Amino acid sequence: MTVSTLVGYIGVGVAAIFFGSTYVPVKQHRSYDGVMFGFFQCVGVLLMAILVSFVVQPYDEKGWLFVPTGILGGALWCGRNFFVTPIVKSI
């Protein structure tokens, strides 16, 4: 097993632990719809993305990189967040 494969497996394990526990607070606290939960989660991800973009500096000689598929993925992800709260509450 190479070092990059080992790093990949460790990354998958860490992601499974942290992404799997993302919605635990939704089950413990009273909420009526997914709007506020989705809003706070999307704002948190946006602020983290801005921070990472300043650290990594994803630009070239033309300026900042713009990826339209990233915006489409983000829009779908935000729409999915609105349905998380009712689904988790019903489980």
Query: What portion of residues belong to β-strands?
Result: under 5%
Shape: flat
Radius of gyration: 17 Å
Order of helices and strands: HHHEEH
**Strand-pairing-aware structural class:** mainly alpha
Q: What is the terminal-to-terminal distance?
A: 40 Å
Q: Calculate the mean pLDDT score and round it.
A: 77
Number of strands: 2
Helicity level, as a percent range? over 70%
The number of helices is: 4
In total, the number of domains comes to: 1
Q: Top keywords for this entry?
A:
mainly alpha; 91 residues
Task: Describe what this molecule looks like in 3D.
A hairpin with a 2-residue loop joins strand 1 (59-60) and strand 2 (63-64). 75% of the residues lie in helices and 4% in strands. It has one domain. Strands 1-2 form a two-stranded antiparallel sheet. The chain is mostly helical. The chain is flat and about 45 Å long. The chain contains 4 helices and 2 strands; from the N terminus they run H-H-H-E-E-H. Helix 3 packs antiparallel against helix 4 (68-90). The longest helix has 23 residues, at 68-90. It starts with a helix and ends with a helix. The model has no long low-confidence stretch (mean pLDDT 77). The chain has helices at 3-20, 24-28, 35-56, 68-90, and strands spanning 59-60, 63-64.
